[in-house]
Amino acid sequence: MGSAIRPILNKVVVQVQKSDRATGGGIILAGSSKEQPLTAKVIARGNGEYVNGQKIEMCVNSGDMVLIPKNSGTPFTLEGVEYIIIPQSEILAIIS
After folding, report:
1. Could you tell me the pTM of the whole model?
2. What is the mean pLDDT of residues 55-73?
3. pLDDT tens digits, 42-61
4. Rounded to whole angstroms, how far apart are CA atoms 4 and 2?
5. pLDDT of 70 strictly over 70
6. CA-CA distance, 38 to 17, in Å (whole number)?
7. What is the gyration radius of the CA atoms in the chain, in angstroms?
8. Other beta carbons less than 10 A from residue 42's beta carbon
């Protein structure tokens, strides 16, 4: 990422990874049309936030692969690359 982006509080910037359920021409393969979560790579994260005086720590780090709900977060483009900014609480899982 050429320009630095620093999400605040509990926000996480992710880049959705290309699905292997589509052909090279972009045709979605049969059986993959269900509302499957998306695999994404964590690009940057905030430092956490305080809720009722207690620090909520961040569970994800840059480089982590995560599952996020389809159509979640706020998409944006920076230097021609598409990203999504999402609250940490909407991340479903870390893929190890």
Report:
1. 0.79
2. 95
3. 999 999 999 999 999 999 99
4. 6
5. yes
6. 8
7. 15
8. 21
